[in-house]
Design a protein that fits this description.
Blueprint (H helix, E strand, L loop, with lengths): L1 H23 L17 E4 L7 E4 L9 E7 L3 E8 L2 E9 L14 E8 L5 E8 L5 E7 L2 E7 L8 H5 L2 E4 L1
Antiparallel strand pairs: 1-3, 2-10, 3-4, 4-5, 5-9, 6-7, 7-8, 8-9
Length: 170
Amino acid sequence: MKRLTLIMIAICLMIAACGQKAASGDGENSASGTAANMVNPMVSCEAAEYPDFSLVGYPDDDAAAPQAFWLIAGTIAQIDYEVGGEKLCFRAAKDTGEEISGVYEIFDVDEERGFTLSDGSAVTVRTRASAAGSGLLTWTRGGYTFSLYSPVGTAEGLLPQFLETRAVEH
């Protein structure tokens, strides 16, 4: 029994020593970019003013009021909304052909629909939806790509308001 107690104490000391080394940043992984020391790529912003562009014409009324503004990895603008108790995520970035939504679920429906904007221009929206009710809408306008995600599918009714959003370069 005494021997088992000594072994248990030794194991506890080794675990504690390993934990201290990792927490102090002296371990091998501290400079390698592990999750413990990575910089958060999301930076809070006061408004839809970002380093290279600003968003104008985005919804900001009783139906859909912005809750938070973010800059992700220095290139993607994000505005968080809460509509009827449900969260919406609206993103915009310079169009590079890459997916900016950050949504990686599998959708059951994937189709394109055309819309005419208030200035008479046309935009094609890719609409994706899941059987669980989530929805992802993506489109490009004026050299920028936009995405609107709702985990419960409430975004589509507000789509015309979001489509009017423009990115203006500084």
